[in-house]
Amino acid sequence: MRLLLATATGAAVLLGGAGITATAAGASTSLTARTAAGDITGVSAGNTYVPSDGTVQAGINFTVKDPLGTDPSTTVPASVTAEISPPGKAARSVNVSYSQPSKGSDGKLPTSAAGTGSFNISSDDPAGDWSLTFKVSRGGSVSTDSFTVNVTGKKASISASVSPDPVNLKKGREVQVDVSARVKDAGSVSARLVSDDTSEYYDLGTLSQDGYGVYTGSTYFSDDTEPGAWTLEVTATRGNETFKGQVAFTVNEPEGGVSKKAKSKVTLSVQKKGTKIKVYGKATRAGKAYKGKMLAVYYKAKGAKGKYKRIAWVKTDSAGKYSTKVTIKKDGYVKVRLSGTSKTRSAWSPQKFVNIK
């Protein structure tokens, strides 16, 4: 695992831009209570970073316990306010969105109710632990719940690795190469594996988010991959900012030389209409249209553990083009596999993220 610092100089570059509106629904992390009365639980926050320029809007999610009290005969509705305090600065108000629920049709009181909130972080604010305080009013009493929000600085960081390193090529076989990156509050993370000596590269596309701040992807190196020095290039977005990092790794040539197979390639594009996704692209063999080839479409839901699942087959036409429609019920990742033969190398398309909302 190597640490990449996205700064204005060096191997990684940070490009500044104006902040955009966001909520905690995308990349968010759960918060631990500092002091708690127990009225506010399930607190998470997202977009909690200091932008290089302008302002970003951080988002929070929270849950109110017993929002109408516990006695059905005498309801005591809760009202919620919140403020947040940066280190060394005065507290500022949090814009809270919370609606009091109603009794159930059976007369029972709800045990919880969800709310959201937002606050601004500007380029002159400090990084570090910010104090988020909720005040819950019920009748004439007020309770307080406090949480710590970690706000990262302008100097964004990526921890990234390639496995295995070195990559030892094998004659007549593919070698799986895995990429892992850790980036906090990233909107998306993509990766390429690039030869330092030639124009050859493997495009992994958008890495899958397997947990908060954890992104992974994989590809397969054929035995004719250029040996020598290679570089993992990671590109992440955070609001309207883009930052990049690099990690060096090595590829060793296969023992016994390279098998005589034609190289193949498959591209991928997606179009979304609700849960219906059009998947299309083109397959080539030795630089020419690969006609009549069966391709497999794979999918994995965002945040899901385990392997991709094959969801469709599609055949290329006389021009090597393919197109099919699939139904996806959750946000996730799609990629296409072109299987190899005794005379043709296999290939994977770059991965694409599909947002069905």
TrEMBL record:
Domain of life per record: Bacteria
Bias (Polar residues): 94-103, 113-122
Key words, A-Z: Signal
Leader sequence segment: 1-24
Region (Disordered): 81-122
Protein name: Ig-like domain repeat protein
Originating species: Nonomuraea endophytica
